[in-house]
Structure formats: structure tokens, C-alpha cells
Write a structure and sequence with these properties.
Layout: E1 10-13, H1 20-29, E2 34-39, H2 42-54, E3 61-65, H3 71-74, E4 81-87, H4 102-113, E5 116-126, H5 133-145, E6 152-158, E7 168-174
Parallel strand pairs: 1-2, 1-4, 2-3, 4-5
Antiparallel strand pairs: 5-7, 6-7
Bound molecules: S-adenosylmethionine.
S-adenosylmethionine (SAM) is lined by residues 14-18, 20-21, 38-41, 44, 67-69, 87, 89, 91, 98-100, 104.
Length: 183
């Protein structure tokens, strides 16, 4: 994230949870940038609000207690997004039945893709070990595979030697105009 985000950027934390990523992003964008944070759980929004306030970062953030599928309605029409972070699944230590799901995750990812700046990045931490996790991962995989390679490059970063069902990172980057695919 720190290589993708600069002071003044507009970024999204699509699943704020306890606010760790939100605080990190708010520091990266600084007072001239903005972080839009989403979560459906009131406790997540409140915990994040407190974490931001403790670090005097409230001014450069907008928290919305609603699903990230509302990104298109919440962000100003002219907002170009440099980076969006989706930490999928459930909140560790929280209610494990409140999870992100394929249809809403896809709606949000597509809304961000339409607003990405050149070189802008969508980072998705994908978990498959909980009920519904594999369905969400499969839907995302299908989506990213059909993205035009002249517009986006998609990379996966995953554990090779970890047992059980380790999470993996999907990174969708919008190409700058001059970049061409290598194949
Ligand atoms: C893995 S946690 C996020 C952890 C967070 N990044 C942190 O640093 O603490 C996933 C979060 O996604 C939230 N969530 C589930 N469905 C959502 C949706 N449609 N839109 C936004 N957030 C959602 C859950 O409430 C939960 O807090």
C-alpha cells in the first residue's frame, strides 16, 4: 500500500473492521487526501471512528455504515480512486456469520475499477476457509480472468507451503495508457 498511495490521494477501505487499514491509509494520504471507509457493522464503524480520532486522522476520512456495494453512491462522481483495499471474510474476534459475499463484493470491485486512476490498485485479501468464502473467491476469479489485459493487470500472491486454506492476495492494477501487456 505504501508504494501505491501518495499524499493527496483518494482511497477506499472497503471493509474497515477495527480500522487498522483505515488508520494506515489515512496516514498515507495525509490531510490533503481522503479515505472513504465502509462497513455494515455499527461496532466496526465506531471502533474505526475512535481509532482515527485517537491519531487525529478524522478530518481526512469519511466512514459510512453501509455495504461497499454503495461505493458508487457515496463517493463524489468526480472522485478518482488511487487504491481500494478489501479485507474480505469476517472480522476476527467478531461475529463470524457476518461475512462479505460474492454479489456485493463484485458490485463494489466493478465500481472501483471504473474510478481507478492510471496505475491505481485494488487489493483484495481473499479467504476461502469459512462458509461462503470459496464461492466469493470463485466469483472474483471469474471476474478478474475476463478483465481486458490492455486495461488491467491482475496478480495473485499466495502461500505455497502453508497447510489448511491460507488467504491470498489479489491485486488489480489499472494500466497507464503507455503500458502494453508483455505477451
Ligand atoms: C476481515 S474484516 C476487516 C478487517 C479490517 N480491515 C481491520 O483492519 O480490522 C471484514 C469486514 O467486512 C465487513 N463486511 C461484511 N460485508 C460487508 C459489505 N458488504 N460492505 C462492507 N463491509 C462488509 C464485516 O463487517 C467485517 O468487519
Amino acid at each position: 500500500m505504501n508504494q501505491a498511495v501518495d499524499p493527496g490521494d483518494t482511497v477506499i477501505d472497503a471493509t474497515v473492521g477495527n480500522g487498522h487499514d483505515t488508520v494506515y491509509l489515512a496516514k498515507l494520504v495525509g490531510p490533503s487526501g481522503h479515505v472513504y471507509g465502509f462497513d455494515i457493522q455499527a461496532t466496526a464503524i465506531e471502533n474505526t471512528r475512535q481509532a482515527l480520532a485517537a491519531e487525529q486522522l478524522s478530518q481526512q476520512t469519511t466512514l459510512t455504515q453501509a455495504g461497499h456495494e454503495t461505493i458508487a453512491q457515496v463517493l463524489p462522481a468526480e472522485a478518482a480512486v488511487k487504491c481500494a483495499v478489501f479485507n474480505l471474510g469476517y472480522l476476527p474476534g467478531g461475529d463470524k456469520t457476518v461475512v462479505t459475499t460474492a454479489p456485493t463484493t463484485l458490485t463494489a470491485v466493478e465500481a472501483v475499477e471504473q474510478r481507478l486512476t492510471p496505475n491505481g490498485l485494488v487489493l483484495l485479501m481473499v479467504y476461502t476457509g469459512h462458509p461462503g468464502g470459496q464461492d466469493e473467491a470463485d466469483a472474483l476469479w471469474e471476474h478478474v480472468q475476463q478483465l481486458n489485459q490492455h486495461e488491467f493487470q491482475v496478480l495473485q500472491y499466495s502461500f505455497v507451503n502453508q497447510i489448511h486454506q491460507p488467504p491470498y492476495l489479489l491485486a488489480i492494477q489499472k494500466r497507464a495508457r503507455h503500458q502494453q501487456p508483455t505477451n
